[in-house]
Write a structure and sequence with these properties.
By secondary structure, this protein is mainly beta. It has six helices and 21 strands.
Length: 496
């Protein structure tokens, strides 16, 4: 494992702090069993868990996409060394995790192509040092709750939002011009969630900054089976929103969520951030208010669940080619379908499909690549993911992910997003990927996740004619050289 001095120092400090925490927790003599009865959140079976491992809080798997927050019974989950008797008596849960890993591609390229979170080849990454403080709503009756998440590590770049976490100002009103809390080009701090809640688990309102309802894979490392992510999650979906969401759970089989947000990955920024709108005639051009909602149907035995989620509203779409100090605004919409089925106690199947659209994605760029029959300057993307998980034993689980992602206009997938990575994008065409992985559980707190992945890309002829290059391999003259890639990686996730 090749690590920088800064990474080594950081990991040493983390190890010291974690060791101190363990010592303190052991010395305190805190017995979690004393509080388990009081703070187990459900007296009935939870709905189907979209996580093949036990002991992961449902809110870190679902991210409020499929059900109201439901904490796993504490004695069945990971030991939490940060919790105190004082906070537990007040219903406040404190926990976190450390995710470190390494991965590489077969071409010897310094970057793993379009793979984002673990994007650096043969360089160890501390992806997440994650801390959660939350108070979960009571099952019945009026109560208050909330949650705050802090993420430090290389994954911070993909969870920062415009405003509090990152700048989005002139001369770059469309993209992020720089994270606010970066400690280096690779490491930094993000606050992906900060919200309050009022109500009960069956009927409540959430307000603040929170993870999206869209999709299947999530940001928290403990909520995913694989180390790498699917293209749909990396490029096709929002990560966070700021706004208000209402949740209604009329019965065990139905959950309805709906509300208003300020668009994709925004803390507090509006549309006009330094440049004027190039198309003021567009409907509601001066507002980025968006609808966000989801509906989930679960079978009576909890073995199956179907979630349909949608986000739709105006967003800055593209800078003007003709007038550099202007930017276009257009509707940005996405619909996601997730279906899960526990066929047996050992075998689980998950299906996901996404369809996304953005108006004015090409602005007035004369070279914008469009598919015949589309609305002018619009962009489309869609994909299908399928997952199969098998529990070989109580400590060993196997997983397979098959995915297809169509970047219809070359507006979503990029080679690299981090400073120093090749600034290449515009890969209009089809991306396929097949990922094999294992989860090896060591006790309740540690999981090792090795995986192998094969990606390949079919380039549209129109895109090839623009000389954008290919998404994989070494760079030659600023362009990628390969249409496929083998990747291997492994990470370790320790909960505390």
């Amino acid at each position: 494992m090749i690590m920088s001095t800064q990474q080594s120092i950081c990991l040493s400090v983390i190890a010291y702090l974690c060791g101190t925490t363990l010592f303190a927790a052991g010395a305190s003599g805190l017995n979690r069993d004393e509080f388990s009865d009081a703070y187990a959140q459900n007296e009935v079976d939870a709905p189907v868990t979209l996580m093949p491992r036990e002991g992961v809080p449902d809110e870190d798997v679902y991210q409020y996409r499929a059900t109201a927050p439901q904490e796993a019974v504490v004695e069945e989950g990971a030991a939490r060394y940060l919790e105190t008797e004082f906070l537990l008596k007040r219903g406040v849960e404190t926990y976190g995790w450390l995710d470190v890993g390494i991965g590489a591609n077969n071409w010897g390229a310094a970057w793993n192509g379009p793979i984002t979170f673990n994007d650096r080849a043969w360089q160890g990454q501390m992806n997440q040092l994650y801390l959660v403080n939350e108070r979960i709503l009571d099952e019945d009756g009026l109560s208050w709750g909330g949650r705050v998440d802090l993420l430090y590590g290389t994954d911070f770049l993909f969870t920062v939002a415009a405003g509090l976490d990152a700048y989005r100002t002139y001369p770059d009103p469309v993209g992020l011009s720089g994270p606010r809390w970066a400690s280096s080009r690779y490491y930094g701090l993000a606050m992906p969630q900060l919200y309050g809640e009022l109500g009960s688990q069956s009927l409540n309102v959430k307000f603040g900054h929170f993870y999206t309802l869209i999709g299947y894979e999530v940001v928290p490392a403990i909520g995913n089976f694989f180390y790498t992510h699917a293209y749909t999650m990396q490029y096709g979906e929002p990560f966070t929103h700021t706004g208000v969401l209402g949740t209604w759970v009329p019965n065990d089989q139905l959950t309805i969520i709906g509300g208003i947000t300020n668009g994709w990955d925004n803390w507090d920024n509006g549309l006009q951030t330094g440049r004027t709108i190039a198309n003021p005639g567009y409907a509601n051009f001066n507002s980025n208010a968006s609808f966000l909602g989801a509906i989930t149907f679960s079978s009576s035995d909890g073995s199956q669940a179907l979630t349909i989620a949608n986000s739709s509203g105006n967003q800055l779409a593209a800078e003007s080619f003709v007038v550099p100090n202007q930017a276009f605004v257009g509707n940005l919409s996405i619909t996601s379908i997730v279906y899960s089925n526990e066929f047996t106690d050992k075998l689980t199947y998950v299906y996901q499909s996404d369809f996304g659209y953005q108006a004015y994605a090409g602005g007035d760029d004369p070279f914008f690549y469009e598919t015949q029959g589309q609305q002018p300057s619009s962009a489309y993307w869609y994909g299908v993911n399928q997952y199969l998980f098998y529990n070989f034993s109580d400590v060993l689980i196997g997983g397979l992910r098959l995915e297809w992602f169509r970047d219809n206009n070359g507006t979503r997938v990029q080679y690299g997003l981090r400073d120093g990575s090749p600034e290449l994008g515009g890969f209009a065409g089809n991306f396929w990927a097949m990922t094999w992985g294992l989860n090896y559980l060591i006790g309740d707190n540690l999981v090792i996740r090795p995986e192998l992945r094969y990606d390949w890309f079919s380039q549209d002829q129109g895109n090839a004619a623009q000389g954008v290059g290919l998404p994989f391999g070494r760079l030659a003259g600023g362009l990628g050289t390969e249409s496929d890639q083998f990747y291997g990686g492994c990470d370790i996730v320790w909960q505390f």
